[in-house]
Amino acid sequence: MSEGVEWALHSCVNLAWSGPDRAVSAARLAAWHDLPAAYLNKQLQALARAGILSSSPGPRGGFRLARPLAAVSLMDVVAAVEGPEEAFRCAEIRRQGPGAGEPAADGAAAADCAIAHAMTRAELAWRKALAAQNLDEIRQQAERQAPEAPRRLRAWLAAQ
Amino acid sequence: MSEGVEWALHSCVNLAWSGPDRAVSAARLAAWHDLPAAYLNKQLQALARAGILSSSPGPRGGFRLARPLAAVSLMDVVAAVEGPEEAFRCAEIRRQGPGAGEPAADGAAAADCAIAHAMTRAELAWRKALAAQNLDEIRQQAERQAPEAPRRLRAWLAAQ
DNA sequence: GCTCCAGTACTCGGATACTTAGTGTCCGAGTTGATTAGG
DNA sequence: CCTAATCAACTCGGACACTAAGTATCCGAGTACTGGAGC
């Protein structure tokens, strides 16, 4: 899985801590965790395209949350960064070569392949688990472990 | 996910259909679905290293199932081909840069990171779903949809 | 003093290189079976 | 005819290229603020 997912998730929580009143530039968010700024910008762009963040150009510009953190699930962020297509894609190899049976009846989609069916089911469980948790729960848990984190971030941003 | 997973799964079912008495070479298995033989061989080697298949060199050699199909889960095959490490690896970026809080107490492992915890939980659901299904169930389901498949494979192998 | 305007600094956004993992191919070590010469 | 040694063919196994996705970077279009000139 792409490393940008972790960056995107942390950035969303950091934006929530920063507050909705002012935007934070990609450079600031990157510096906070010592990440390559231009590359993080790429991921944030993806989040903006997905409607999770909103971006503003120019001075005082940057990114901010487009909707409440509680309305963003882990699945939303993963789909925005990694793309919507599923990890296991059935190439239907059983239809190739001598092993190809009758050439796929009308209603016979990829779902008829027992292997593809089982793999898809497992991946669905993964997606469901990701969709069941929103970022606000993540934020609360993070604050429980590091209560001073939000204040430290705001202070650092103000000093920049 | 690597494409070899699909190949490996189909090959295992095909080996079950072929019967335990004689081994099938990677070239035969590849030709059956029109796959690159040398590359499929690579995947089968991984299955052999994992103890799922057993390999024999020389003429009349090839691969055969090392244990009953019912004793092989989808997870076993995926782990053998893709490797055991999990897809989402937490890089602990929150410990880097100005945002690094107190430098990780003794017992504070990666599990303390709320994001890593949630992602790991979702991936665990995926692994659990894969581990819950064994290849014999897959085989039965495939035979229900194409009852003539085993016989056709054995006939083709005998004709080679 | 107030308004308007030009200039500047800063932002995102996409286009452009670089690196790693995945994909594909090739050749050698080893083994089995067949063939042939000998008893 | 039976036995043993040689030979050839076939297998896996790992080492060697090629391709695509992921990673990282740079530069341009556009915007908001700052400073100053004019009224």
UniProtKB/TrEMBL annotation, chains A, B:
Transmembrane segments: none annotated. Gene3D superfamilies: Winged helix-like DNA-binding domain superfamily/Winged helix DNA-binding domain (1.10.10.10). Pfam families: Rrf2. InterPro entries: TR_Rrf2-type_CS (IPR030489), Tscrpt_reg_Rrf2 (IPR000944), WH-like_DNA-bd_sf (IPR036388), WH_DNA-bd_sf (IPR036390). SUPFAM superfamilies: Winged helix' DNA-binding domain (SSF46785). PANTHER family: TRANSCRIPTIONAL REGULATOR-RELATED (PTHR33221:SF13), WINGED HELIX-TURN-HELIX TRANSCRIPTIONAL REGULATOR, RRF2 FAMILY (PTHR33221). This is Rrf2 family transcriptional regulator. The lineage of its organism: Bacteria, Bacillati, Actinomycetota, Actinomycetes, Kitasatosporales.
